[in-house]
Design goal:
An eight-stranded antiparallel β-barrel has the order 1-2-3-6-7-10-11-12. Strands 4-5 form a two-stranded antiparallel sheet. Strand 2 and strand 3 form a beta hairpin. It is mainly beta. The chain is 14% helix and 39% strand.
């Protein structure tokens, strides 16, 4: 699903970029506007206008404040549930025609629910601590058939703080003071904070009985998920397994993260533009969704071979302050 989403976004960006290229010959005369030039570079600007200097002066850069809402999801071992809700804010400062620096914070909730059953959870304390019995060993090292099958779920609260470089692809021709459209890429580093909870007990404090729900297939996945949702009470009362070696902050697990993304912005006035973004935070942790073991082979649970990633798709409004 993540691959399909990225492909769709890239296709839309390519379409808009093609449209922009077709109209790129309609450039304006913003480079003549002296109101865009700071006093420290006015001498160069005048010399350029009088054909006494080969390069025009660089216009002043503006600070931008952005507000956004969106849907965070986790790409991991548990299938994502959509839509979710998150909100964010950023401050951005341009350092040239093509490059800006941006600080961003966002917070949200990501949920997940598997439509495939699992019995291979003997090392997942969120379930075993509530009385669920998966594959167990006897004294001779033989595995017993599990008593309880489960459908993995989670509710993860995330906060992400990062510093980013923003690369503008649509101002390469320079001196276009107010382009109507901008396409850009995001690269950055930061910290991701998360707290994962699991819905493992019903309102009476007892474990659920998932045994009556048939294992889902791709064709029946929605029916299986609906049956599991009807059984769950949605309280997410049990703490998911966490990395005991990772630092904690604000009651959450804190992890270093790297972020990358794509976005496009549409100017609706001289000071305001609307932006659509999709960015991914790559976190060195496999427990954002509360599960780090593979479903197979049955018996001794094997750790997954990949870490989780945090995706945030958003739409926002950006305001140029000064």
């Amino acid at each position: 699903m993540t691959i399909k989403k990225c492909s769709l976004i890239l296709g839309l960006l390519a379409l808009v970029m093609t449209t922009q290229a077709q109209s790129s010959t309609e450039g304006g005369n913003e480079w003549k506007d002296s109101s865009l030039i700071p006093p420290s570079r006015m001498a160069q600007h005048n010399e350029f206008l009088n054909n006494q200097y080969i390069f025009p002066a660089k216009p002043r850069s503006q600070w931008e404040l952005g507000l956004k809402i969106g849907s965070p999801t986790i790409a991991g071992d548990v299938a994502s549930v959509r839509p979710n809700f998150g909100f964010g804010v950023h401050a951005r400062k341009a350092l040239g025609y093509l490059f800006s620096v941006r600080g961003e914070f966002y917070r949200g909730t990501a949920k997940g629910l598997n439509w495939k059953e699992t019995n291979n959870y003997i090392n997942n304390t969120a379930w075993t601590s509530n009385g669920y019995k998966g594959w167990t060993k006897d004294g001779q090292g033989n595995y017993y058939v599990p008593t309880d099958k489960i459908f993995l779920n989670h509710k993860t609260t995330v906060s992400d703080l990062s510093i980013q470089g923003v690369f503008n692809f649509t101002n390469i021709r320079f001196h276009k003071a107010e382009p109507k459209f901008a396409m850009y890429a995001i690269l950055g580093v930061g910290a991701t904070f998360y707290k994962t909870m699991v819905d493992a007990k019903n309102a009476g404090g007892s474990k659920y009985s998932f045994n009556g729900i048939p294992n889902g297939t791709w064709d029946t996945r929605n029916d299986t998920k609906n049956a599991v949702k009807a059984l769950l009470d949605g309280t997410y009362e049990t703490a998911g397994e966490s990395n005991t070696q990772a630092p904690k902050a604000f009651g959450m697990t804190a992890r270093f993260s790297q972020t990358a993304g794509l976005g496009m912005a549409f100017k609706i006035s001289k000071k305001v533009n609307v932006a659509i973004e999709n960015r991914v935070s790559f976190v060195k942790d496999d427990l954002l969704d509360g599960q780090r073991y593979q479903a197979t082979p049955l018996g001794e649970a094997v750790l997954s071979n990949s870490n989780d990633a945090l995706n945030f798709t958003s739409i926002g409004i950006n305001i140029n302050l000064f």
